[in-house]
Amino acid sequence: MLEIKELHKSYDKTEVLHGISLEVKPGEIHGLIGENSAGKTTLIKCVTGVYKADQGEILVDGEAVYDNPKAKVQIGYVADYNEYIRFYNATKMVKMYQRFYPTFDVEKFNYLNELFEIPLEKTIGSLSKGQKMRLAIMLEIAKKPKYLILDEPTSGLDPVAKENVYKVLIKEAEENDMGILISSHNLMGLEKVCDSVTMIHAGNVERQMSMDSMKDVLTKLNVVFEGGAGPALYNRKDLLRVSNVGSIYTLIIKDYNEDKADELKALGASFMEPVALSLEELFVTLEESRKE
Amino acid sequence: MKDIILLIRQRKEFYLTVLVITLLLTTIGAFYNIRTTYKGLSEEMAHVELITEEQASAMAENNPDLFVRGANSNNLMIGFYNNYIYMAHTGLVLVMIAVLLLGYVDRNEKSTREFMETLPVKRVALELYQYVASIGILFINVLTALGIHMIVLCHYNSNIVALAERFPGIVGELVPAGLVTDNVMLLLYQFGMLTLYFTVMITLWFVCMSVFKNGTVGLFAGVILWNSMVNIMSRTRWLMLRNDEARFDITDSFRQMMAVFNPRLYFDHFRYAEGKCANAFTPFVATALLVLLVLLIGILVVHSYYRELSKGKLFFWNGFNIILLLAGGYWLFTFTLDWYGFGHPISIPLATVVTAVVEIAAIMWLYRKKSKTYKLAVKERRKVWNPIAAQGLRSFLVATGVIALLTEYIDLEYNLTWLRYDLADINIYGWFPEEPWHLVFFDTHYRFQFAMPILIGFIIFKCIQFGMERRKETREFYETLPVSRLRLYCTKLLMDLGTILIPLTVYTMVSLAHLDSFNRQVQRIYPELQANAMVSEQFVNAFFVLCLAAALLGVMYLVDAVTVSGGMKNIYCVVIALSVFVISVHLLNYTFYIPVASDMIGMIWGYPTLLSAIIYLILGIGLLILAGTLFIRRDKAKEIFYYKSAKYVFATLLSISYLIFVMSGAYVEQALYQYILAVIGTVLIFFLTIWYCTPGRVAELQKKLRVKKAK
Fold this sequence. Notes:
The structure holds 2 protein chains of 2 kinds.
Chain A: E1 2-11, E2 14-24, E3 29-34, H1 40-47, E4 55-60, E5 63-64, H2 69-72, E6 75-78, H3 90-100, H4 106-116, H5 129-142, E7 147-151, H6 159-176, E8 179-183, H7 187-193, E9 196-201, E10 204-210, H8 214-217, E11 218-225, H9 231-234, E12 239-245, E13 248-254, H10 258-266, E14 269-275, H11 279-291
Parallel strand pairs in A: 3-8, 3-9, 6-7, 7-8
Antiparallel strand pairs in A: 1-2, 1-4, 4-5, 9-10, 11-13, 11-14, 12-13
Chain B: H1 2-10, H2 12-38, H3 42-61, H4 64-73, H5 85-107, H6 110-117, H7 123-166, H8 171-174, H9 179-211, H10 215-243, H11 248-260, H12 263-272, H13 281-306, H14 319-339, H15 347-366, H16 387-422, H17 425-431, H18 438-449, H19 452-468, H20 472-480, H21 485-525, H22 531-562, H23 566-591, H24 597-604, H25 610-633, H26 644-664, H27 672-692, H28 697-710
Helix pairs in contact in B: 1-7, 2-5, 2-7, 3-4, 5-7, 7-9, 7-13, 9-10, 9-13, 10-11, 10-14, 11-12, 11-13, 14-15, 16-19, 16-21, 18-22, 19-22, 19-23, 21-22, 22-23, 22-25, 23-24, 23-26, 26-27
């Protein structure tokens, strides 16, 4: 298991991570979301052993990661920018990975390249942003790590490539028991693949939940108010978001239960129907409510 | 160690390339050295013939002195102290280090470094493998050079011993016993010390590159630090002596310590020691170097273990800020003392003021408070002529203008006090009793030197500007600006011209004021001297600097217009500078003895004459027009060079420089192997450079190899 316990990290005197804890189990796909500068990339760099944690622990199957080749060999890392060594081409990178990672599987790399189609002889510096990302995903998966960490893996990819990335990740998690941690702003994509997510805000864990329990946090309702909703609806403190098309109102409401349904009826609601809340809606609503 | 070997093996192609190139240079250097020192094996026969002839004439004239004189004048005796082995080696090692450091800096890019940190190897290994590889390559080169020198030295000295046996009466007295073995021991000693020097020097450079967050800055700091050590110690010694005469014994040890940082000083000392290895001087230097080496390796290892990418701003550990402030301040203090002549009392207050100003500015910059708000203060919109120009001009002015102004100001104050004091009537009579016209030359030449910071500062900042354009994203950003290419080019040019013109105008004005005061003093003593000539000379100086700057701008803009990446632009500039130097000095002066050579060299070295100024101006304008045309037409989709012809010019300059350097350095009429090496080297360099400068070269080569394999 990949465990992060009470992680603190600062840049000089500014602390950017204030005691973050999370776990990624083998075979689990865990999403990491948060606004810009929330500390996601710093957290990932600590987890991959690029940065040293000031306090707390990062363990891969019980082994500390920082400056520990034994643990590092079990981690794959796809960064948000993957320059590697600019003058190398893909073939040379494969040779390098074979040298450093005994588990590197060239056949798997070739299989992935049938999907992603990277020109093997071009130098990395001359590849496009999307091609660099594809190459990084191929290399990191082909080295068969126990845990794969991805920072914005779909940035720069076309829709087909994005789909392929998600398919490959699901396959790796299911068939090879690979634990995956993905940080992304593409919440629709994350929703498709993740088993659980951690929301980070300003260096703290704001919320951790499985995708199934997401509906417990907030509820989205389609409600009909014949003749329009009155100010009493808008003044409710538990109502985080409201929009309408004619008399059909879409509400996102906190801690929804039967009592609240009765209260809405009392306000003139003639029809109520809970609908699926997307991860993106959840994130945006929470962000907006925090700012208010 | 396992991890270090793994990392070196991973980069073996790079290291093998460096090794092959450096070994080639070592071999050439060693043979070059042997020829210039021993004049080659073939010349032994000439010595034998000479001795026979001299012996015959000595017999005929019955005068043995004639023979001894003849033998001595032809360097028959090869004493160890005439051996300049270390000189040829220096160039080689510097080339090697430059290549290795390029590799280090490349791996030190943030994204690459972060990727390397994710590799399953120990962090210490990640930091040390480049160092281990560098030292390994150095040792292989030293051993190769040692082998070649040893063979030739033994062979040559054996021949001299044989000659002594053939002519025991006369030559025998000149040849000491144990000539061969003594010189072998001395050679071993010399190479040992030389290796130790370079090892310590490379270690210091790596330490600096390791502690600075920016490896390139660290490298410069390391080079400056190593090269300044002698100066710092010399000035420290002088300061101690000046304050207390009784400390002479203590400060005398500085002389030995100075030799720890400079091979030339050491070998000079060694030469005067008459070849005795076991004097007190050598153990001191060797011990000091060993202690320093252990200390530096210790720092490197400890720092490698603790350094962490997220820490620090200038250094990985902020405590180094204080060390930098203290060490940099002391360095600046001694440097300023040296620059303005430390003999006069005014130099210490001046150096103190300069150091204090720079230190305060550095402290304010290092510990400045950064705004934590997300809002900028709203200012009235100013009409700037171009945002890039405004920002660039400001940087340039800080760099060149302020430096030049400061230099001029201090220089003026200094001269008005010290020079006036020193050029008292009696001194002027003493120095120039018969030819007072020398005063004119003395002063104008001297004044010209002080204009140089303007151009030097300009070149440095232009190179930094090139360096900032090394990434494709930056270059492409410029293209997205709503400015036409012609306007961009003209703006850049005007900005650069302004950068030079502003300090130059100030320099000229201040300089004329100083000259006026100087002239009045001189004319009191030599009323017949036309002081106006000196004033007009000064205008020529200013005009000359401007024309030289125009030529310089032309070359740099041409390079900018044809070369894609910023790093390559800097390399191209270095190649041009190198070829100008080599071609002018070696080709004209040493190789072909062309009569106009000295004038041409004068022009290249920048002696201010009206003719050379006009030539520079025409050259500069021509190059700028050409550069502008190419700048506007270039296709941004290219790699390495925008125009194909540029790589041929680049390769030609490089190969011709090599050819001339190799051919001019020795006695070519006797060295067939030099012709062979020179031709092979020139052709190789030419084609390899063209191949290297061809985009997609590796893919093309692999494709060709694959086709060949398939057949």
